[in-house]
Write a structure and sequence with these properties.
Layout (H helix, E strand, L loop, with lengths): L1 H7 L12 E6 L3 H9 L5 E7 L3 E3 L4 H5 L9 E3 H5 L5 E5 L2 E5 L4 E4 L4 E3 L2 E4 L3 E3 L7 H4 E2 L4 H20 L10 E5 L3 H21 L9 E6 L10 H13 L3 E4 L5 E2 L3 E3 L4 E3 L2 E4 L3 E3 L16 E2 L5 E2 L2 E6 L4 E2 L12 H19 L14 E6 L2 E6 L3 E4 H15 L3 H17 L39
Parallel strand pairs: 1-2, 1-9, 2-5, 9-22, 11-18, 12-13, 12-18, 13-14, 20-23
Antiparallel strand pairs: 3-4, 6-7, 7-8, 10-19, 15-16, 16-17, 21-22, 24-25, 25-26
Flavin-adenine dinucleotide (FAD) binds next to helix 2, strand 2, helix 3, helix 7 and helix 9.
Length: about 450
């Protein structure tokens, strides 16, 4: 009886009917979430499917990895974000394929979700380019889990150095970051500050002067896509703060104890890989045309050629600008793509034809560390230093989803700024992450001493 009552109470204007379009969105990241939010007032029934129950603000992952922010500050439950909208259902599931004949999405949990319109927005994954040892030994940085794992590992390395100073000769405090794009630059700068300002005080018995942060980039410049002056500024700033910047150097292999640059092996237990992404592997399972990096080929309205009811947005889509260049894999492209697809769905309901998606570049920015950033705005305006840093802070704060996250991030930033402290330096499951020690004797590696575990966060 309860059930009958609650069904009858479902608002008639949002109750699913055969006439209402069923829009299934796969992925609740920047693109998928924005699309769901844009469609909440439309006469459609939306199912947002994600393998995680939360949305992650990836641009601040490096701050979680360097103990500046708690993970909860940059992630938010999808159900909490969308709970006020009767026409949106959130489904926790991993999509593994699409049954094109029956118009159903297939999930790893063996469910099928029928759709009239399907929007694929599963983003990108780390690409290791098949370099031997990298996938096994590198720390990627694309999720809160990975950021937490890296944070725990960095702290565990210091615990190890404290317990056994001889490990410094084995590179336990050498941190190699590969990839000189914004993430690599931001992470290298933040790691140097964490070590120099915070861990130095936490570990007074450790010879922190011997800690190294090495940033390796294959091209002859940092921050590809930025202007020369911003690239030079990032290079000079990082160097002045103690980062060893290696330009024109390529990683050709990695092991538990080192990173091979061909002419030199850097002895280290920490390789962070920010050097490449490829489309989410779901793209490979759909039988659709793809680019070299796995992105799904789309028409200029972001629909899949020959399948006007299927759209692809964000990092997964191979959208192109007027010159034929692929759109950058950035949050703004994903969000603008979402707004465009919402508009296309409205046009279709009105019997109108498709319009092309035009990405509007509103500028690019990267932070290098405390009081240091570079910002480039279309039209040639360039900012650097403290002003650029404040612009970077303000924009990222404004882009975070929800007031609670903004407040949490702002308060943690403010505390870090005035106190030079890092509030989130907790180790979570770190003991499993330390690579085994190789003493060169050929005998089995010595076990890593246990490290304290603290579990107080997500
Ligand atoms: C460390 C880092 C820093 C970045 N910094 C910036 C920056 O400063 N500025 C900027 O513009 N961009 C930045 N980016 C890039 C930006 O985050 C991406 O371009 C953006 O997230 C792409 O949005 P999306 O919706 O395509 O994918 P995502 O936001 O990655 O979302 C994909 C979603 O799909 C879900 N998913 C994946 N596979 C499945 C599946 N099989 N089934 C169900 N769900 C699935 C995931 O859980 C996720 O929620 C950064 C990225 C990283 C990793």
């Amino acid at each position: 009886m309860e059930l009958a009552q609650s069904t009858a109470a479902h608002p008639p204007d949002t109750a699913p009917t055969a006439a209402r379009q069923r829009v299934v969105i796969v992925g609740g990241g920047f693109g998928g979430l924005k699309l769901a939010q844009d469609l909440v007032d439309d006469p459609v029934d939306i199912t947002l499917v994600d393998r995680r129950n939360f949305h992650t603000f990836q641009p601040l992952l490096y701050q979680v990895a360097t103990a500046m922010l708690d993970p909860g500050a940059i992630a938010r439950s999808l159900r909490a974000i969308l709970q006020d909208h009767d026409n949106v259902a959130v489904r926790l599931a991993t999509v593994v394929g699409v049954d094109w004949e029956r118009s159903e999405v297939r999930t790893a949990e063996d469910d099928r979700i029928p759709f009239d319109v399907l929007v694929l927005a599963t983003g990108a994954v780390t690409s290791h380019y098949g370099i031997p040892g990298v996938e096994e030994h590198a720390f990627p940085l694309k999720s809160t889990d990975e950021a937490l794992r890296l944070r725990s590992h960095v702290l565990a390395c210091f615990e190890q150095a404290d317990a056994d100073p001889s490990l410094l000769d084995e590179g336990v405090l050498t941190f190699v970051v590969v990839g000189g794009g914004p993430t690599g630059v931001e992470l290298a700068g933040a790691l140097t500050e964490l070590i120099g300002r915070v861990l130095r005080k936490d570990f007074p018995r450790v010879d922190v002067e011997r800690a190294r942060v090495v940033l390796v980039e294959a091209t002859d410049h940092l921050l590809g896509g930025f202007g020369r002056s911003s690239q030079d500024n990032a290079y000079q700033t990082l160097r002045s703060r103690g980062v060893e910047v290696r330009l024109g150097e390529k990683v050709i292999g990695a092991s538990a104890t080192g990173v091979d640059l061909g002419h030199e092996i850097i002895t280290t237990r920490t390789l962070v890989w920010t050097a490449g992404v490829r489309a989410n592997p779901l793209a490979d399972a759909l039988g659709l045309a793809q680019t070299a990096g796995g992105r799904i080929v789309v028409d200029d309205d972001l629909s899949v050629p020959g399948r006007p009811e299927v759209y692809v947005i964000g990092d997964l889509a191979a959208g192109r600008d007027a010159d034929g260049g692929l759109h950058p894999q950035m949050a703004g492209v994903a969000q603008q793509g979402a707004v465009h697809v919402a508009r296309q769905l409205r046009r279709r309901r009105e019997g109108l034809g498709p319009t092309p998606f035009e990405y509007k570049n509103k500028g690019i920015m990267a932070t290098i560390g405390r009081n240091a950033a570079v910002v480039e705005v279309p039209g040639g305006l360039r900012f650097r230093g403290r002003l650029a840093w404040v612009m970077w802070l303000a924009l990222h704060l404004q882009r975070l989803v929800g007031f609670r996250n903004r407040w949490e991030v702002l308060s943690q930033w403010a505390w870090n700024y005035v106190s030079y402290d890092r509030t989130a330096r907790l180790m979570v499951d770190a003991a499993d992450d330390l690579p085994p020690r190789d003493d060169g004797s050929g005998s089995p590696p010595r076990p890593v001493p246990p490290v304290p575990r603290t579990r107080s966060e997500v």
